[in-house]
Write a structure and sequence with these properties.
Shape: elongated
Strand order of the largest sheet: 1-2
Order of helices and strands: HHHEE
Largest sheet: 2 strands, antiparallel
Number of strands: 2
Mean pLDDT: 82
Number of domains: 1
Number of helices: 3
Low-confidence stretches: none
Structural class: mainly alpha
Distance between the termini: 46 Å
Helix content: 55-70%
Radius of gyration: 27 Å
Strand content: under 5%
């Protein structure tokens, strides 16, 4: 696959707001799931009433469809015992985690450049040894500015 002709255009900008993405994942996506669940419950109620009058091969097909329907709903929403196993919840969690990771990466970048600017503007002298500000990821190294 060929990259777009303007892939390295310095005028292009990706503007991402991690707070907005997190909000969409935690609030909007879960609200949408609630709306979808309401519609599915309505369909399920109608379906249950329809099954009462079927017999023979049609009843078998209806039961087969019902089983497949229930499996699909369980995959989408999880079970009552484990709603976290549903695709909606997993998607919301993944997007929220990605937003948090993006925000942390941006903050680490800001810290790195802030440290660089401070080091470049520091008075001459013996630089301190390199330091590590955290032991848990993300880990950043701060090297002293050259004399």
């Amino acid at each position: 696959m060929q990259p777009p002709s303007n892939y390295d255009d310095a005028g292009l900008m990706i503007n991402v707001n991690p707070d907005t993405i997190y909000h969409y994942a935690i609030v909007n996506l879960k609200n949408a799931a609630t709306v979808v669940a309401g519609a599915i419950n309505a369909i399920d109620g109608i379906w249950q009433n329809l099954q009462l009058g079927w017999a023979g091969e049609t009843a078998t097909e209806a039961q087969d469809f019902s089983n497949k329907w229930n499996t699909a709903i369980q995959l989408l929403f999880g079970t009552e015992a484990d709603p976290q196993s549903g695709a909606f919840e997993q998607l919301a969690t993944a997007v929220a985690t990605a937003a948090s990771n993006y925000a942390q990466a941006e903050y680490s970048n800001w810290q790195m450049f802030e440290s660089l600017v401070n080091s470049l503007n520091a008075p001459p002298g013996t630089p301190p040894p390199p330091t590590r500000n955290e032991n848990n990821p993300p880990v950043t190294e701060t090297a002293p500015a050259p004399p």
